[in-house]
């Protein structure tokens, strides 16, 4: 990061310019980070409650995991809805609507008496939360220079990192001492606080575009034009498919640790928090590496390492070589690699866009959660009694992501500021 960048940067926010002081920069990152973290909190905090939910609703942990799949499906579909709305009405109005929907559905989840009701309410909750996810990515593109977006996404991951480090641990204690329903009340309270933070601390970063049509044909045409950009589809789908391996781990981790390795809800929260340190720590190291290497170089190196780790994990799991400690070790390294892959893929996907940043953000997020939903549904259909299905999906997703990257980058035009990608030998040692 260039010296003094935080204190001298000026960005254009409708309808006026704001000089970004260090304090203002920190405030924006914090609010955008909490918006980005709302979805992960909604996923991670209730994971320790799976056994309790299954008992109260008279079902199985596998059936309860469908509420996680419906959440991913809702986020994927909802982002395609909010993308055009963010471009048509500006960023904040659709964001308010989504946050209110999220708040009300979170409260409603506490009254669910059947697994079917919980699955449906989680879908509605996801429709609300994805407004925050799409808006935060689009506003990064609005408020910060393109060349600094990878660094900003890395900082957002630091805020998002509070979720997997804190949410499962808190969820484990809350579920044990007060019941799983209280987890959803906490999520509703978080939404209320975020609404106030957005109102008082976040500028409107894009003016409403009255010429932007909300009719299906123009919206689909706009999505089509975004998808035609080689840099977008290469890095968006690389990041999305790689990200699906993370969601397969998240979905399979309650069975892996609490059923197979027999850890308690509280112990599970601490293990989940520890593993998340790898994801968040790597995303911050990524900011340092960006001073010397380009995003294109980092992402190819990280994916190669992630693929090797995933193959070792699935092989060791299938042959019965891995205990609790070694399983945690391989997953930790896997998440470290993802901490390099995800922010760089996001930045490279969004960098070609300015006017259509909302639609591009929506497509990128929809791809991430769409592939994630596919991974969790596939895992649920396997009705796993071991860790093999989870490890296999993690390995398969990483291999596919590497294939997409290697083939797709050939279509990206080579320009003076974007030379051919070469993996620095030192990054593989």
TrEMBL record:
Keyword Cell membrane among UniProt keywords: yes
GO BP: xenobiotic detoxification by transmembrane export across the plasma membrane
InterPro entries documented for this protein: Efflux_drug-R_Bcr/CmlA, MFS, MFS_dom, MFS_trans_sf
Record localization: Cell membrane
GO molecular function (one): sodium:proton antiporter activity
Transmembrane intervals: 25-43, 63-82, 94-113, 119-140, 152-174, 180-202, 232-250, 270-290, 297-315, 321-342, 362-381, 387-408
Pfam families attached to this UniProt entry: MFS_1
Keyword vocabulary terms for this entry: Cell membrane, Membrane, Transmembrane, Transmembrane helix, Transport
Membrane topology label: Multi-pass membrane protein
One GO CC term on file: plasma membrane
SUPFAM superfamilies linked to this entry: MFS general substrate transporter
Domain Major facilitator superfamily (MFS) profile: 28-410
Family from the record: Belongs to the major facilitator superfamily. Bcr/CmlA family.
Protein name, per record: Bicyclomycin resistance protein
Protein's organism: Adhaeribacter pallidiroseus
């Amino acid at each position: 990061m260039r010296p003094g960048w935080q204190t001298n940067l000026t960005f254009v926010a409708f309808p006026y310019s704001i000089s970004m002081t260090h304090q203002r920069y920190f405030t924006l990152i914090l609010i955008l980070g909490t918006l980005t973290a709302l979805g992960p909190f909604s996923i991670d905090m209730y994971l320790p409650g799976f056994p309790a939910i299954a008992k109260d609703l008279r079902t199985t942990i596998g059936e309860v995991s469908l509420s996680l799949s419906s959440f991913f499906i809702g986020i994927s579909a909802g982002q395609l809805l909010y993308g055009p709305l963010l471009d048509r009405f500006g960023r904040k109005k659709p964001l308010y609507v989504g946050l209110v929907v999220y708040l009300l559905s979170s409260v409603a989840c506490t009254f669910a008496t059947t697994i079917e009701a919980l699955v449906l309410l989680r879908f509605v909750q996801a429709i609300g939360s994805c407004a925050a996810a799409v808006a935060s990515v689009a506003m990064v593109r609005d408020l910060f220079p393109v060349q600094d977006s990878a660094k900003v996404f890395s900082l957002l991951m630091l805020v998002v990192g509070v979720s997997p480090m804190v949410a499962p641990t808190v969820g484990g204690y809350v579920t044990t001492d007060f019941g799983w329903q209280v987890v959803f009340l906490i999520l509703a309270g978080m939404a209320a606080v975020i609404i106030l933070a957005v109102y008082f601390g976040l500028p409107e970063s894009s003016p409403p575009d009255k010429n932007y049509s909300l009719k299906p044909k123009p919206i689909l045409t706009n999505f089509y034009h975004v998808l035609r950009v080689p840099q977008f589809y290469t890095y968006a789908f690389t990041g999305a498919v790689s990200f699906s391996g993370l969601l397969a781990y998240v979905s399979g981790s309650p069975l892996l640790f609490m059923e197979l390795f027999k850890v308690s809800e509280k112990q599970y929260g601490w293990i989940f928090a520890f593993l998340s340190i790898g994801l968040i720590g790597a995303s911050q190291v990524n900011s340092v590496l960006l001073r010397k290497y380009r995003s294109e170089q980092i992402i190819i190196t990280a994916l190669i390492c992630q693929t090797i780790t995933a193959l070792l994990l699935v092989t060791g799991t299938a042959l019965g070589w891995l205990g609790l400690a070694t399983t945690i070790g391989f997953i930790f390294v896997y998440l470290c690699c993802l901490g390099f892959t995800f922010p760089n893929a996001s930045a490279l996907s969004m960098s070609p866009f300015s006017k259509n940043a909302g639609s591009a953000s929506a497509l990128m997020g929809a791809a991430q959660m769409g592939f994630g939903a596919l991974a969790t549904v596939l895992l649920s259909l396997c009705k796993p009694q071991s860790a093999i299905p989870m490890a296999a999906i993690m390995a398969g997703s990483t291999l596919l992501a590497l294939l997409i990257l290697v083939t797709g980058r050939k279509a990206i035009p080579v320009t003076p500021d974007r030379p051919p990608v070469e993996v620095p030998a030192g990054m593989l040692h």
